[in-house]
Amino acid sequence: xxxxxxxxxxxxxxxxxxxxxxxxxxxxxxxxxxxxxxxxxxxxxxxxxxxxxxxxxxxxxxxxxxxxxxxxxxxxxxxxxxxxxxxxxxxxxxxxxxxxxxxxxxxxxxxxxxxxxxxxxxxxxxxxxxxxxxxxxxxx
Length: 140
Description:
The chain is α+β, with helices and mostly antiparallel strands.
């Protein structure tokens, strides 16, 4: 059985729109995963400290049979393949992929918390989720 999963995409280094496009393609190509809908891309201010440029953000809705941790590891491979280097928390990055919701699953492990704890504090994520929900509702 497949679960519906929302994934947040963000980029604030280099060809930001290109990184988001490449990430969408890579996510759609993951095994037992199908891209259902994408929100529009929006620009937001960065989180954290230090001088860095604004982010381009987008959220996608997928259907997948990958387990939550397997999906997380696949998304981290996509990040690395597109130049992501993890140096400091909240630092600038070519690509950031976060699992925001994984169906009705709740999880609290060292590497994955579901739903994503940042959801409550990121208004743009809530806007993007509402946009995805409206797209799915219109298609039903």
